[in-house]
Amino acid sequence: MNKLQVKLETFFWGKPPSDPKERRLLLKLDLVILSYVCLSYFSNYLDRANLANAYTTGMKEDVGFKGNDYTYAGSMFSAGYVIGQWPSALILSSGRISPRFWFPFCMVAWGLCTLGTAWATTPHQVWGIRFTQALFEASTFSGTHYILGSWYKDYELGKRSAVFATAAQMGTLFSGIMQGGIISNLEGKNGLRGWQFLFIIDFAITIPIAIFGFLMFPGTPHTTKAFWLTEEERQMCLQRLPHTEHVKMTPKTLGKSIKKLIKSWRWYLFTSLFTLSATSFEKVGVYTEFNLWLKSAGYTKQQISYYPSIFTATAIVSTYILTLISDQTRNRFIINPIMFGAVFISSVMLLNWNHLNKGAHFFAYIIGGLGYAGQASNFAWANELCRDDDVLRSLTLFSMNRNLWYQIVAWPVVEAPKFRNGQIATLVTGAASVLVAIAIVYCSKKYPPNLPEPEIVEINGKLTNINENEMNSNQRVSTPNDEETKDVENLHGAISTVRHV
């Protein structure tokens, strides 16, 4: 590779390994692991986002939604999502059920629930289906961040977490486009409404992805038997990351892990961080305020399906760009005040509702797309600071993703489209999330986690920190000479002297 190629790859994807074998391994991991989790999350959000699209394009009238029925459907989903978090965390960290089986099984289950929504005839049926669907969807988001942290080094995590997070927005983007096409071409075909076709097509998309996961997904480095990995590559996967004890889950080890969990500032602060930031910074998408405003403003069904795609595209681009900034500066904190600034502008504008023209409304909703960057950077941050304990890492990641009460209290659909209380609550919780992020920075320096010791080795009579060099290489772009390359490659086979700092 020439220097320009190395610079571009380093900036957009991270410094490529100098060892050709590790470079080939990393490519394999990206092609299988990253492609599957992105497709899975795409399907996850496609199934989830389509309720909003269906509701605003005919489902509300056909199923008989009244008052806050739609809000309760969202809250039932949140309840199932919260309840489903810890069982998935324990299943993944215990090693008793391989992620290769668990993830595809959950996909098939939520796909069937999605299919069932097409024939719901009352709001109560929708509530029950959404609750059950969420129990299985809870495995995907936090579970994937746990899996990514199991296979990728810290400096490889940020950009891959960003690609994964944007897969959700791609699902939302595709949902709106698909619904617009369905309304134009399939409405009334075979006696079915357009919103029913939406759920049927979702199911048809979900099942092939689940089959792909069952056949190809490798599980975790400690347990993988993936046919596409050689034995040498399996060992390399274990050697690439700092050593952490892989604990088989038993009542005794679970008790010890939970005891350690409740004593750890990481669990409290990271759980508070994402709970607060997700409920505030993701407001435009989570509470579908853009769609509901379009419906109230008299836009057509096709316009209601297509126009929110602008917001979604903003979320996709900003998530990746802000994660690049986070990686280049090696500063996970900085994304949080940036997100708050964007959502602050959005909420303050919408609180001055009567002074906004249509263009200002569009801007207020679209700028809210910047609030999704925390899905990548904050979970990468948690992964990095919980490296020392696999169970703590799993339970922390799964605990971060919960907001059961918020929609009922602050975003009831009867207050659409202004949602004055929701905008005020967003300003409060958004500011609080930035304060929590500051607390994480403070505690990580004042009470640093017991992360694996850096490995110090002797190269040509000089002591070198391998992990630090790898991290710094994400910022320094250089082409190693042949002698340096040989030294680095030899380290993987035989390290002459190891000392701990």
- Characterize the biggest β-sheet: 3 strands, antiparallel
- Strand portion, in percent? under 5%
Average predicted local confidence, pLDDT: 82
> What is the global morphology?
globular
The value of Rg in angstroms is: 23 Å
Description:
Helix content is 72%, strand content 2%. The chain has a three-stranded antiparallel sheet. By secondary structure, the protein is an all-alpha fold. The protein contains 23 helices and three strands. The chain has helices at residues 3-13, 20-63, 69-94, 99-117, 123-137, 141-151, 154-185, 194-216, 231-240, 251-262, 265-281, 283-286, 289-296, 301-306, 308-329, 335-351, 358-366, 374-385, 390-399, 406-410, 420-446, 466-472, 482-493; strands spanning 456-459, 462-465, 498-499. It is globular, with a radius of gyration of 23 Å. The chain crosses the membrane at residues 101-121, 127-149, 161-183, 195-217, 267-286, 306-326, 333-353, 424-443. InterPro entries: MFS (IPR011701), MFS_trans_sf (IPR036259). Residues 470-480 have a biased composition (Polar residues). It is a multi-pass membrane protein.
